[in-house]
Amino acid sequence: MRYAVLVTGPAGAGKSTFCNGLMTHLQTSKRSGHLVNMDPAANSDAFEYEPSIDIRDLVSLEDVMDELGYGPNGGLVYCFEYLLENMDWLDEELGGYEDDYLIFDCPGQIELYTHHPFLPTLVRHLQRLGIRTCAVYLIESQFMEDKYKFFSGVLSAMSAMVNLEVPWLNIMSKMDLVTTNVEDKGSGRNGIRTRKDIARYLEADPMLLLSAPGSREERTERNSKFHALNQAIVQLIEDHPLVKFLAMDLTNPDSIETVLSHIDYVMQYGEDEEPKEPGDLDEGDFAEME
Ligand SMILES: Nc1nc2c(ncn2[C@@H]2O[C@H](COP(=O)(O)OP(=O)(O)OP(=O)(O)O)[C@@H](O)[C@H]2O)c(=O)[nH]1
Ligand SMILES: [Mg+2]
């Protein structure tokens, strides 16, 4: 059984850094993982591990911009359209892997997740090939500094979940930047002073929105529409409590292990493995016991 993890989320959320961290963790746990670069604009310096499959071998944004005169966003759309027309390339590239984790590092253009059909089509294709697929969606901990920004992240996660329809994990990345130390001046931002405060963000408690700056001001005619919009968002999140975040601190190996165990769980990793028969065992299976 092959497993695909789509690493998604807005620009700069830490997707490529997480992919590197996950690759290292899989290797130290003696599990096999392969990096799949899905970003036609990726800079090779960003990869600690050479991608085993790379969309840039099929089509690169630079060539599309040079040769067809597209801008960066139109060029990206063109690259994905080109990929969908040439899926046999991907099938061939994916052919050589068995019982492996394939980690797809996706681009950061948010519209790819919320309303373009590319990623849903890719997901269906992987599923047809019998590859068990899940997605992780990263938003970075700095989003917690501004309640409006945070809830726009929650809504984008929600629409990506609805659009992609695969087992899903939302991750709050860069938790090493969040401190609950009261001596640290930065830690009081947006009222984040205790673990309990952080927990309200990880649970995406919509009531936080009601205490956001400006939300208690006198309701003038000018801002009444703004209040009504906030109220509607609170109601929407309360009615559909789909989004919760798993905190991730890449400086702590236990944290990556926790994220990986959640990924294993949502993908039911290893559930179809047959126990080895005594006849299948060889000396290598006992090497670690010596
Ligand atoms: N402190 C801290 N910084 C991080 C972490 N993860 C990523 N960064 C930094 O955030 C920036 C963006 O990281 P990337 O991994 O390139 O983010 P990305 O989501 O792949 O970005 P795009 O592919 O451009 O959308 C880089 O400067 C990283 O060094 C983290 O866990 N902690
Ligand atoms: Mg990246």
UniProtKB/TrEMBL annotation:
Keywords: GTP-binding, Hydrolase, Nucleotide-binding. InterPro entries: Gpn, Gpn3, P-loop_NTPase. Residues 271-290 are annotated as: Disordered. Heterodimers with GPN1 or GPN2. Binds to RNA polymerase II (RNAPII). One of its GO terms (molecular function) is GTPase activity. It comes from Dichomitus squalens. Belongs to the GPN-loop GTPase family. This is GPN-loop GTPase 3. Small GTPase required for proper nuclear import of RNA polymerase II and III (RNAPII and RNAPIII). May act at an RNAP assembly step prior to nuclear import. SUPFAM superfamilies: P-loop containing nucleoside triphosphate hydrolases.
